[in-house]
Structure formats: structure tokens, C-alpha cells
Amino acid sequence: MAKLVYLYGLIPTEEAIKDAVPSFRGLDEQNEVYTIQLNEITAVVCDLDADTYSEESIKEKMNNDMEWLQGKALHHHEALLALQKQYTVIPMKFCTIYKSENSLIETIEDHQKKITNSFTQLAGNEEWNLKIYCDHSKLKDFISGHNSLIEEKKQEISKLPPGRQFFEKRKIDQLADQELEKEINQTCEQIHEELTKFSLHDSIKKNWGKDVTGKQFDMCWNSVYLIQADTVEEFLEEIKKRKNELAETGWKFEASGPWPAYHFASLT
């Protein structure tokens, strides 16, 4: 039976020797996970049937079977979370599959220097994510009562004839929307700048819509940070401080981690 090789991630051989990789069922729920060692690098893999997991079969499943996709993606993610608890891990993207063991070995050999450098970068560090949400209505109400530009506009309108005031008040609402957007951007950027002081590397990601987050409020910031393990507590304390400061004006913070370093070390 022809087989493919599914790659979960790469770990330092030195760590794999000291602490053997635990045995668990692979992506197909049949074959056991095992390792392939190549000098300083050890690959954590499982075998897959070549027909069942061909490129065409996987594309068909991804397009037409959401339950299959979610289950397999969750398996991949949970396997990496388990590995991360014991090793320095370079995580692979979901469905990283090689035609043979030799093909995988060739790829590792071609990227050996990059991989070992990534191990050095990741050792003793953790990836954390921060998502910031905002109740636009609540923040807009606060801005409307505390913004100097809006206050000036109100004073200006109050001196106009009643008929003019009606139409000019609509401009206040437009100004409040503009100031709301400015406040959201400035606040998020300021918080991110403060948090980068704790990080070795960081990246700003695309915001997710409510259909993805399932949250009541809009996501207005999404960023990831690579942080030394011994400074994570300070990082989280800074987020907690800002959360408490801004809670009354409609801000919500969601810090999560540590995650496999998907954003700071990967092998395509």
C-alpha cells in the first residue's frame, strides 16, 4: 500500500533523545506517530494512505466536508500543543504532507541551517496572541462627551439660529464617527507599542469578523508576540492594567497562549 508522510513539526534531536516523543494516533486515527531523525533535527510524523489522503481527496474534503476539516485541523493543533509542552517545536501548517520519507529528508537537508537557527530563536520563548474588541456605541458616547473638537462644534452650533442647528447637529454625529475611528486606531497602536517592549518579535494580523469570532463586539486589533518565558507575567500584567483602565469605555481584551510558534518559525 502506497503511503504518504504527514509532518506535524520539527524538534531538536537533543531534546527528543532526553525525552522520548509520546505515542499517539496520527491524523488517520490508525497509524501511530513516530519520529525521523536527521542529525540535529527530528521530525514528528505519521503515515497516511496515499489514496485516501491524496491532494485531490484532501481538496474535495476541505471544500465539501466542514466537519472533517474541523476535526483534522483540531487534531493537528492539539498534537502540536502537546509537543510544545515538552520540546522546542517548529510547527508545520495543517496538512503538510510529503510523498515519501526521502522527500521529507531532502527538504530538511535543504533547510537545515534555517531550522537550527529557528530552534535557537524559539528556545525558552513563547508565542502569545492579543485580540482587542470594542463596543463602538459605548466608546462613541464617551468620546462625544469628552472630545475637545466635538465640544467646540457643539458650542459653535449653540450660537446658531434654531433652524440651522437642526442640520448642523448631523455634522456632530459625523465628527463623532471620525473621532471614534481615530481613537480606536491610536489606542490600539499605543497598546501594541507598549507590548513590543516585552517581545523579541511581533506581528500584526488581520482582524476577524463577528461571523468568525462569535463575539458581540467588533475586533479592532489582532497581534502576536514572541516573548521570553520569564517575562510573560509582566506582559500579561501590562494587558491587565490597560484592560482595567479602559473597561468603562467599552474595550475588551483577550490574551491567549502560549501557542505553538506558528507566526515566528515555520517550514513551508
Shape: elongated
Looking at how many chains there are and whether they match, the oligomeric state comes to: single chain
Main sheet record: 5 strands, antiparallel
**Count of extended strands:** 9
Helix content: 40-55%
Coarse structural class: alpha+beta
What is the H/E order? EHEEHHEEHHEHHHEHEHE
Span between N and C termini? 27 Å
In total, the number of domains comes to: 2
* Count of DSSP H/I helices: 10
- Poorly predicted ranges: none
Percentage of residues in DSSP E strands: 15-25%
Cα-atom Rg, whole angstroms?
Answer: 25 Å
Mean pLDDT across all residues, rounded? 90
In words, what does this structure look like?
This protein is α+β, with helices and mostly antiparallel strands and 268 residues long. The chain has helices at 13-18, 55-64, 66-84, 101-110, 112-122, 136-146, 148-158, 162-195, 210-213, 232-246; strands spanning 3-12, 34-38, 41-49, 90-91, 97-98, 125-134, 199-204, 218-228, 251-259. The protein folds into two domains: 3-123, no CATH class; 126-147 and 186-259, Alpha-Beta Plaits. It has ten helices and nine strands. The strands form two sheets. Strands 1, 2, 3, 4 and 5 form a five-stranded antiparallel β-sheet that branches. The longest helix is centred in the middle third of the chain and has 34 residues, at 162-195. The two termini are 27 Å apart. The model has no long low-confidence stretch (mean pLDDT 90).
